[in-house]
Amino acid sequence: MQKKNILVTGGAGFIGSHLVRKLLSEGVWRVSVIDNFNDFYSPQIKRKNIEQFAGSPDLSVIEADIRDTAALRDTFSKVSPEVIVHLAAMAGVRPSLKDPKLYTEVNVDGTVNLLHLAREFEVRQFIFGSSSSVYGENAKVPFSEEDNVRNPISPYAATKAAGELLCHTFSHLYDIRTVCLRFFTVYGAAQRPDLAIHKFSKLITEGRPIPVFGDGTTRRDYTYVDDILQGVRAAIDFEGSKYEIFNLGESQTVELNELIKLLEENLGKKAVIDRQPMQPGDVPQTFADISKAKDLLGYSPKTKISEGIPKFTDWFKSQM
Ligand SMILES: NC(=O)c1ccc[n+]([C@@H]2O[C@H](COP(=O)([O-])OP(=O)(O)OC[C@H]3O[C@@H](n4cnc5c(N)ncnc54)[C@H](O)[C@@H]3O)[C@@H](O)[C@H]2O)c1
C-alpha cells in the first residue's frame, strides 16, 4: 500500500509530537516534521518529544525554520506533502507583548510561506493550528465560530487571526482546502512548561509560590490533548467546503481557583499563592461552542478535567 505524505510543522512540540505518535500508529502515513527546536522552552524537551519515534522508518525530522523559504522549498521538493498540519508557531500570549515582531515573522510570514508552497506543490489539505485567543474579551459564551474576532488583545492572538484570514485567501484563490482549528487551552503529557497546569505543578511540588493573576475567578476551557488529536485527525479527512473554522475545546469551563484545588489534590500538596494583578493580554474567560465541530467533524471530546488532571499529574510525577 502506498503511504500518504504528511508534513507536520512544529512536530517536535507538545501537540505536534502527540500528533506524530498518532499518525505513525495508523501505519498509512509517511510523516515529515519541520521544527527549528527554538529555545522558547528547552530544546532538549523537544528533542526528547521526537526522539521517542527515532526508529520509525516512516518519520523524517527536518530541522528548519518556517521563515527560511529556501529550506522550506527544499523540504517540499523532497517530501511532496499531500497534507500539511501547520502547528509551528511562537506560542504564548504574554511573551508576545515583549517581542511582537518575532510573533508576526513566525506566525504570519511563516504561515504565508507554507501556504505559498502549498499552492505550488498542490497540497490537498492544509490544517492551521489557530487559537481561542482570537475571541479576545468576547463576553458572549460559549464562543461560536460566528462570533466577531476583530478585537484580539495580544499580538499572539492577532497573528492567529491573521493566519486564519490568510488561509481563507489562499483557499479562495487557489482551491486549497484549509481547515482552521481554534484550540482551547490544551493540556496532557508533555504540555509546554510555560502553561499554567505544568508550571503550577512544578512550583507546587517544589513548595514555591504560584503566581495567580487576578482573584482566581478567570475561567478556561481546558482541553485534553487526546481530544484535540481527535479533532485534528478528523480535519485531515474533512471533505466539506474549501474553508472552515472549528472550535476544538472541551466545552466545559473551569475557574482558576478550582484548577489549583484539583492540582493540590492530585499532587498531594497545598499551593502557596502569590496574588498578582491581571496581566495585559490575558482574557477573562474561554468557553468553546463545539456544536459545529460535532456536526461536521464528528468531534466528541471525552476527557473531563477531573479525569484529565490525574492523567497529567501521573505523567508529571513520572518525569521527576
Ligand atoms: N497548547 C495550547 O494550549 C494551544 C492553544 C491554542 C493554540 N495553540 C497552537 O497550537 C500549536 C502548537 O502548540 P504547542 O502548545 O504544541 O506549542 P509548542 O511550542 O510546544 O510547539 C510549537 C513547535 O513549533 C516550533 N517552532 C516555533 N517556531 C518555529 C519556526 N520559526 N520554524 C520551525 N518551527 C518552529 C517549536 O520549536 C515547537 O516545537 C501552536 O501553533 C500554538 O499557537 C496551542
Describe the protein in words.
By secondary structure, the chain is of the alpha/beta class. The chain has one domain: Rossmann fold (3-Layer(aba) Sandwich), CATH 3.40.50. 42% of the residues lie in helices and 19% in strands. It has helices at residues 14-26, 43-51, 69-79, 94-98, 100-120, 155-174, 196-205, 225-237, 256-267, 291-297, 305-318; strands at 4-9, 29-35, 59-63, 83-86, 125-131, 177-183, 186-187, 209-213, 219-220, 223-224, 243-248, 254-255, 272-276. Strand 1, helix 1 (14-26) and strand 2 form a beta-alpha-beta unit. Helix 1 (14-26) crosses helix 8 (225-237) and helix 7 packs across helix 11 (305-318). The chain is globular, with a radius of gyration of 19 Å. The mean pLDDT is 97. Residues 10, 12-16, 34-38, 40, 46, 65-67, 87-91, 106, 110, 129, 131, 183, 185-186, 192 line the site of nicotinamide-adenine-dinucleotide (NAD).
List the defining traits of the structure above.
320 residues; alpha/beta; Rossmann fold; 7-stranded parallel sheet; two-stranded parallel ribbon; globular; binds nicotinamide-adenine-dinucleotide
Low-confidence stretches are: none
Tally the structural domains. Answer: 1
Total helix count?
Answer: 11
The major pleated sheet works out as: 7 strands, parallel
| CATH C-level label | Alpha Beta
Q: Brief description of this entry?
A:
The protein is built from eleven helices and 13 strands. The chain is α/β, with parallel strands linked by helices and 320 residues long. The chain has a single domain, classed as Rossmann fold.
